[in-house]
Specification:
Spore Coat Polysaccharide Biosynthesis Protein SpsA, Chain A; eight-stranded mixed sheet; 17 helices; 44% helix; elongated
Length: 435
């Protein structure tokens, strides 16, 4: 059945509060709405949380316009609702939207209330709502909604760094006046409180005035301090995976999950890692399989994701990783990223950031809390990093650093993540996803 409403939420590094926001939308999903989360390259727990709590998760270039267009693409819903991650909908929001559209409106927005104690915020929200009624212009904080067919006919949001909501409103206004719903959405006041209420008010009014006077979005983005869109870079990706056989996979989780449960966890972790690698779209993905690529699970993944599969060699994890790097650099000159399947927090944004780091460094690493590492990337072969390492011990990262120093190469360490190896790690993951 086609959803009547598609909620598109652009996010980037919203991990600390995203689960709460997405769980608040569960009743709408139960009533048939589709929830699409569009990640702009997060490097925190955003991706893992969204995968667990949304109907669809999409990776897009950073920037609300590009992200919202990506989320809307392919939808067959009657209406699209563009919702910021820090904005809460009122009860029955989908019914209010449906009534407005059934009354003949092509688009609309809600009144907004800003969550914060500063008295000036009451003035800000009143002026926002009044200005919107008078001008027919809506902002993203007001949860803009639109008929999907109208949105598509206008070509979606303009691909600009700032003022994408104002620009689209101006074009929608030619179709018709917006439905200005008096029911309020509640948006976070963190932007005002972080930078100072009066300073933020002044900046926003200056930006809006400059926009109407013809100043371009790139200039306004620099004034606003918008970080810009990271440059695209390319690399191949190798995923080291073990077949999900009871008694042979994730056995340290068996005290909590049992042998079959641990194998099922291995299956899910492998599927999620492969989805992450493919979503990052940095380059071709190869699944390095143990005991070999003939296992039915790996054959299914190869068909589902159109990835290459190869057999891991015998030996310790160092020998197997060295095999993957040696094989790659014997046939290619682009960088290679290599990761296992034990870190559900690894996101496409991490892979993209790692590739960008390799433009300046020979090696990039994502350390793990247990003293190892989640990911290693190289732009040229550095075999010493796999030699003389006490694998599966807390000394792995420290010994790897020493090998890198001895080799005279430059390297970058990204933010530390954590693997799911022990029952405590498993419960930590469950707590994160239920937050």
């Amino acid at each position: 059945m086609t959803a009547s409403l598609c909620i598109v939420m652009p996010v980037c590094n919203e991990g600390s509060t995203l689960a709460l926001r997405l769980r608040a939308l569960a009743p709408l999903r139960e009533r048939g709405a589709e929830l699409v989360v569009v990640d702009g390259g997060s490097t925190d727990g955003t991706w893992a949380t969204a995968v667990a709590l949304a109907d669809r998760v999409v990776l897009a270039p950073r920037g609300r316009a590009a992200q919202m267009n990506a989320g809307a693409r392919g939808s067959t819903a009657d209406a699209l609702l563009f919702l910021h991650a820090d904005t809460q909908l009122p009860a029955g929001a989908e019914l209010l939207i449906a009534r407005a559209l059934q009354a003949g409106r092509a688009w609309g927005r809600f009144d907004v209330r800003i969550d914060g104690r500063h008295a000036a915020l009451r003035l800000v929200e009143r002026l926002m709502n009044l200005r919107s009624r008078l001008t027919g212009i809506a902002t993203g904080d007001q949860a803009l909604f639109v008929r999907r067919t109208v949105f598509e006919s206008l070509g979606g949001f303009a691909d600009i760094a700032l003022m994408e909501d104002v620009e689209l409103s101006a074009r929608l206004r030619r179709v018709g006046r917006p439905a200005c719903l008096q029911t309020q959405v509640v948006t976070s006041g963190r932007r005002w409180e972080k930078h100072g209420v009066w300073r933020t008010i002044g900046l926003m009014w200056c930006l809006r005035a400059a926009w109407f006077l013809g100043v371009g979005a790139p200039v306004l983005a620099r004034w606003y301090g918008y970080p810009g869109r990271p440059a695209h870079a390319a690399a191949a990706v190798a995923v080291m995976a073990r077949a999900p056989e009871p008694g042979l996979a994730k056995t340290r989780l068996a005290p909590a999950l049992g042998l079959r449960g641990a194998a099922r966890a291995q299956r899910r972790f492998t599927q999620r890692t492969l989805q992450t690698a493919c979503a990052a779209a940095v380059g071709p993905v190869t699944l390095w399989c143990a005991p070999d690529a003939s296992h039915r699970f790996f054959r299914a993944l190869r068909r589902a994701h159109a990835v290459a599969c190869d057999n891991q060699c015998a030996g310790d994890i160092g020998a197997r990783m060295q095999q993957a790097f040696a094989h790659h650099f014997a046939h290619a000159t682009d960088p290679l990223l290599l990761t296992g399947t034990d870190c559900p927090l690894l996101a496409p944004g991490h892979l993209q950031a790692a590739v960008r780091a390799l433009a300046q460094h020979d090696v990039v690493l994502v350390p793990a809390e247990d003293g190892g590492y989640v990911l290693i990337g190289m732009r040229r072969m550095v075999p010493q990093v796999f030699e003389g390492i006490d694998w599966s011990t807390p000394q792995v990262m420290a010994q790897t650093r020493e090998r890198l120093r001895q080799s005279g190469v430059s390297w970058l360490e990204m933010e530390t993540l954590w693997d799911v190896d022990e029952p405590a790690d498993w419960w930590r993951l469950q707590t994160l996803l239920q937050r």
